[in-house]
Amino acid sequence: MKKLIAIAIFCFAFKCVFAQQEQHSSFFSIGVELGLGTRPGVYAQSYAAIKKGPMYYKIKNSSAQEIELFGDKPNPKLFDYALMVGKNFDIGSFHNFQLGAGLALTGKVTQGKYLRSGGQENSGILLFGHSVYEKIQKNTIGLPLEAKYNFQLSNLIAFSLSANANINTIQSFAGLSVGTFIGKIR
Description:
Blueprint: H1 2-18, E1 26-37, E2 42-52, E3 55-65, E4 77-91, E5 95-118, E6 130-152, E7 157-167, E8 173-183
Antiparallel strand pairs: 1-2, 1-8, 2-3, 3-4, 4-5, 5-6, 6-7, 7-8
């Protein structure tokens, strides 16, 4: 009986808290973010999203890798291509929080056996010489998660701060990033 009462109170409170969120307009946005991740180097993501009422739907690409312009090839990295769905929480007239999850094609690129020394690949000139290794890529399905804060600067531009994670069987990774996007959030 206590469980039923607790569930009923939770459902009623949940409905009351989100009743003000019932909007049915659609908005489109695109954005980019850079930050730090759980592996050395840069965590970066780009996305396109559609907000419909209190929900959002997103296509997202994220990557965690070291940036080495003249280093060995291939550059080791973790990446994902995700389809996500989440909930928007509007607070006041400038603030917005988003919580989302989805499915992603997740991959890890590593260096295999040594192949050759390289420079400019087609000319044979050893300018900024580096070593070229076999590219080993493993792919799996991952579970991307995100928590995001957006601050609307104007009608079409917003600043964002995101915490992201991808849980998978190869190597899970996470990142904290800041960026901007063009489009409406409310």
